[in-house]
Amino acid sequence: MTGKMFSFLMAAVFLAFFTSCGSKAPRKAESSEPESVKEPASEAAEAEPAEKEESTASAAAGGQNLILTGSFEGSTDGWNIYLEGGAAEFGAKDGEMNLDITDVGRVDYGVQLYYDGFSVYENGVYEMSFDVSSTIPRTIEWRIQLNGGDYHAYASEKITIGPATQHISRTFTMAEPTDLAPRLCMNCGVSEGYNAENAAHTIRFDNVSLCLTDGSGIAAEELSEGPSIRLNQVGYRKNMTKIAVAAGVKEAGSFSVIPANGIKAVFTGTASAPQHNTSSDEDVQLLDFSEFKEEGRYYIRLDDGTVSPAFNITDTAYDSLTDAALHYFELAECGTAVEDDTFGHGPCHTGKARIYGTDLFIDVTGGWHDAGDYGRYIVAGAKAAADLLLAREDYGDERILDIVRYELDWMLKMQDPETGGVYHKVTCANFPGFVMPEEETEELIVLPVSTTATGTFAAVMAMAAEDYAEADPAFADTCLAAAKKAQAYLDSVPSDTAGFRNPSDVVTGEYGDTDDTDERFWALAQLYRATGEASYLDKAAKYMEAGLAGDLGWTDTSLYGYYAIAKAGYDSNNLAEAAKGFIRGKADDFIGKMSGDAYGSALGGDYIWGSNMVAANRGMAMLMAAQFSEDQRYIRGAEQQLSYLLGTNATGYCFVTGFGETSPLHPHHRPSVAKGIAQPGMLVGGPDSALEDPTAQGYLGGAAPAACFIDNDQSYSTNEVTIYWNSPLVYLIKGLPL
Asked: At what angle are helices 575-594 and 558-568 packed, to 10 degrees?
């Protein structure tokens, strides 16, 4: 953890307050229900963290129930369900939690009721208690467990239950290091004593309580900050902008650049005047050494002796980073054996997939695993493929054609041959455990056609028709035909204002989007560029007239459309010049946002889920603007976005795994967790001030927005990886001139 320092202090005096939490379950009349809190049902769900005036630690110190909704008086806030082959629903009824089970699945956690949002402290003594009954005799297991990795239990117990209500009360000592974001589980799947003939049954819970009863052995815990001097830890090309940021140090007058193996300064500069950086809530000084261009490996030292991580200055600074970032896509290949000394795996997800709601099965093997899980999503894959194809188009590198071809072949399988519409995604119903891809063996499900998937598909296939025309003309023709067929489908259906939504029994990433105008525009723009047919441009022009936001994400793809029209360069309505001006205007806006941030970030203080993608996208937009302007601000701005991602940020992390002195060691990425080592070359999500997962909520409460990042494999909202975060990183690296 980085950013501002947090202390969690607990002392023996807490014992004076423990009397309110004893062996007897609390009476409902004494309970206090919080306001409704939206909890994530899956990795890709959005959540609003609970607003707490005091930390979990201080609440425990008062002897309060850590399970804020344990009496179920009309509310189940904070509770959720995980299904692994099972089928069940839950809700509050008559002042109890009713878990209605129709299928227990095939494992003990096939039906798992769970609660997040509390902490357990090393050496703390806790009492777990609840009331429980079941309409049939059976065995269940309660667990306080690690919320990720091997999910091992800190405390657990199997209990046999039946129609008579039992009061369960057990005391345990937390023997492991403090966990600020564990999970309370009720595993109600397959178990001994369960009669399969009585499949449908109801388990009732009430008065669920977890209380700290003895905190005398709990020691103070401090989570340290990152490096005091934040800079691009991978390094700089000789002519790049080179600005480090000193934070949390006494006022620096001058600074020195020193060879990594020496002590004598080779460059001396003057630190800027101190300034307060709002997004990170810290006082900082800027250390500009852009004029120093001598190749070598160096570190920075302040007058008070503070030193920075080491860095390189060389025009080859990003060669190995580029290779690793591209290799990530090869390691993400699905449906085939992948060779790699550490992250190689056997063929995975090779069976046919069932079209949701039918008994039809189709072959959709191939493509890239999307993120830290093994789903494959058209809208995400289209953005990633587009970024890589543009990198090759604008800056060269023929190997990109081979890498992207694997994704395109899969995308073609996702098009319905009858209608031309494109299925939204293929996943299992649930996220898998932290296993290698060949170990996810649940049924694959193809989810329905969406207009957003169809639009992005049409756009990328039109791009491919141009990009593969010389290398593989037959494939290029196939792509163009598929793009035209997808466009015909879009012409036949109205805009979808509801957007794709997961069915109730599928919890994997939704990628929902209620506005498909940007995807439709992008498809028309790319088809116009690929064919020169004026009819496509005429339709695209109407979208431009109506106004589009102009972005490079998966929810708003319209800037890709502007770039396609700008690069086509010929039309009768002067739309190419309008498109170029629009792109320059967006880049100017992003540069304006940089001026308000000491780290040169173009985020404008808005740290959302995937903020690192936004930084990379905005750097990419600046490089697009540089295609149509000689204004060097665009190049310098893009350089600073790359430096932000590689360490010049409020956390002090190089956000790409395996690079720099301080980089994520525990990304939310199943192969990395399964192998026990971070796969190199992956850009993690970065700071997310909304704290949209239990781990972020547990560890980052009170952190400044720019510091809301934690290197923990359970923080999917800050530390996950995806193909469409790596793809703009590749474009950004390749686009920076020597």
From this structure: 130
SS3 579: helix
Dihedral (C-alpha) 171, 172, 174, 179: value to the nearest 10 degrees?
-60
pLDDT band of 216, cuts 50, 70, 90: confident
**How many other CB atoms are there within 10 angstroms of residue 317's CB atom?**
21
Q: Parallel, antiparallel, or unpaired: how do β-strands 183-187 and 138-145 relate?
A: antiparallel
The alpha carbon dihedral of 649, 655, 656, 660 has a sign of positive
Side by side, which strands form the sheet with 201-214?
A: 87-93, 96-103, 201-214, 125-134, 166-173
Looking at residue 214, its amino acid is D
Asked if 285 and 272 count as a contact pair (C-beta separation under 8 A), the reply is: yes
**Contacts for 425 with CB less than 8 Å, ≥ 6 apart:** 375, 376, 377, 378, 446, 447, 453, 508, 509, 511
The enclosing H or E element of 528 equals helix 517-531
**Residue 235 and residue 297: Cα distance in Å, rounded?**
9
Measured distance CA(383)–CA(389) in Å, rounded: 10
Helices (H), 258-398: 319-331, 378-395
If DSSP states are collapsed to H, E and C, what string results for 456-482?
HHHHHHHHHHHHCCCCCHHHHHHHHHH
- What type of residue sits at position 91? G
Its pTM stands at: 0.86
Q: Is 213:570 a contact under the CB 8 Å cutoff? A: no
Give yes or no: 668 in active site: yes
518 is catalytic: no
- Spell out the residues 6+ positions from residue 504 whose beta carbon is closer than 8 angstroms to its own: none
Parallel, antiparallel or unpaired: strands 445-446 and 353-355:
parallel
18 close to 211: Cβ distance less than 8 angstroms:
yes
The catalytic position among 141, 373, 513, 713 is: 373
Residue 522 pLDDT: 98
Model confidence pLDDT, tens digit, residues 60-91: 444 689 999 999 998 899 999 988 888 999 99
Tens digit of each residue's pLDDT (9 = 90 or more) over 451-497: 999 999 999 999 999 999 999 999 999 999 999 999 999 999 999 99
Does residue 711 carry a catalytic annotation? yes
Report the candidate in 689, 690, 591, 682 with the shortest Cα–Cα distance to residue 641: 591
Strand residues in 366-437 grouped as ranges (E)? 376-377, 425-427
DSSP per position, 530-569: HH--HHHHHHHHHHHHH------SSS--HHHHHHHHHHH-
Q: Which amino acid appears at position 473 of this protein?
A: P
What length is written for the chain?
738
Cβ 100 vs Cβ 177: under 8 Å: no
The greatest distance separating any two alpha carbons of the chain, rounded to the nearest whole angstrom, comes to 82
Catalytic residue among 345, 424, 668, 669: 668
Gap between the Cα atoms of 373 and 588, Å rounded: 36
Could you tell me which residues are beta bridge partners of residue 196?
A: none
Cα separation of 610 and 644, whole Å?
A: 14
State the Cα–Cα distance between residues 326 and 389, nearest whole angstrom: 12
Ramachandran area for residue 314 (φ above 0: left; ψ -120 to 50: alpha; else beta): beta
Residue 517 pLDDT exceeds 90: yes
